User: Which sequence fits this backbone?
């Protein structure tokens, strides 16, 4: 039903500016739990990651729902876990519009959103209302944390700590995002010394809440290895690889726009960097693979490489709201022995 509706309205939505279409879709999210029926993953797909029970190995990546307003809808659509944000200590408008661009021929997105969000206090209020209403989903909900644009890098630790303290007990896990290309200076926090200071403060402050580190695909393999070692030494529960890229493999419609590239064009680079991260982790912590997951075959490849789970976002825009359920169904079917 939802995919049929989406096929009907997609041509109209794609005539609109991408962010305008995004805002329009969000107005209809309260209807999704009533329209989505039977989309929960097969129980055989449940996976335990960092002490959390995912409903299935396909989760929603951060970026789609900055302020945690659509969580019941994402759960109804069959995501195995839901990641909201990126959220920052201070509410901020983000970069000037337009700042989100579709690449329909390639099923990719370019964004330079700049962490537009209502702030950590606002997200905590939204999550708290959901919990108090007894509407918390049966799958984990994570909060992706970034640095406020107005905060200098030397003050980044306090910025992240504020968000952790506000959201502790509200979110099921945290993700330290130091890999977005759209906040000036943010990626410098992936360097060994600043990363060690940041994670050395955030992980203890999170207490029993698992903390993941999200890394950029534009890091060289040696730098990825260093960042992974820092994360493991700090006690991170796992690694999320990767974020968007500032590189531009190919040329179709992309050279005139700056920002982070995601979706299918990112997949070859993401696959390479995920392999490097898996090698660096060496089985000591779970790795969640992100980047160009558009099908069950894509998800299965990342899982076969050693990822504990995958996340998607961009392909959801191009292939419709039934995508997570379809991927889960195909993964479950592939695991069943032949009759």
Assistant:
């Amino acid at each position: 039903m939802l995919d049929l509706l989406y096929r009907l309205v997609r041509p109209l939505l794609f005539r609109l500016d991408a962010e305008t279409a995004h805002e329009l879709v969000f107005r209809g999210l309260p209807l999704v739990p009533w329209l989505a029926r039977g989309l929960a993953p097969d129980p055989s797909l449940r996976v335990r990651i960092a002490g959390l029970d995912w409903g299935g190995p396909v989760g929603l990546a951060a970026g789609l729902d900055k302020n945690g307003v659509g969580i019941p809808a994402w759960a109804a659509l069959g995501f195995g876990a839901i990641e909201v944000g990126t959220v920052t200590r201070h509410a901020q408008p983000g970069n000037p519009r337009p700042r989100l661009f579709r690449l329909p021929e390639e099923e990719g997105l370019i964004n330079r959103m700049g962490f537009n969000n209502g702030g950590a206090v606002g997200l905590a209020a939204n999550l708290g209302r959901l919990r108090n209403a007894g509407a918390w989903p049966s799958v984990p909900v994570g909060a992706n944390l970034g640095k406020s644009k107005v905060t200098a890098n030397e003050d980044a630790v306090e910025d992240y700590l504020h968000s952790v303290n506000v959201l502790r007990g509200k979110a099921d896990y945290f993700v330290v995002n130091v890999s977005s290309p759209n906040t000036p200076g943010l990626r410098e926090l992936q360097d060994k010394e600043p990363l060690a200071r940041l994670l050395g403060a955030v992980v203890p402050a999170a207490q029993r809440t698992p903390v993941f580190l999200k890394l950029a695909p534009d890091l060289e393999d040696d730098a990825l290895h260093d960042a992974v070692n820092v994360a493991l030494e700090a006690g991170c529960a796992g690694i999320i690889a990767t974020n968007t890229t500032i590189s531009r493999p190919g040329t179709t419609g992309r050279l005139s726009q700056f920002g982070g590239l995601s979706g299918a064009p990112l997949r070859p680079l993401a696959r390479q960097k995920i392999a490097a991260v898996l090698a660096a982790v060496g089985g000591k912590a779970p790795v969640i693979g992100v980047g160009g997951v558009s099908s069950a075959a894509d998800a299965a490849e990342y899982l076969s490489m050693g990822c504990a789970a995958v996340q998607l976002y961009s392909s959801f825009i191009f292939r419709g709201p039934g995508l997570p359920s379809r991927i889960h169904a195909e993964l479950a079917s592939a695991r069943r022995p032949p009759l």
Remarks:
- The mean pLDDT is 94.
- The CA atoms of residues 80 and 177 lie 21 Å apart.
- The two ends are 30 Å apart (CA to CA).
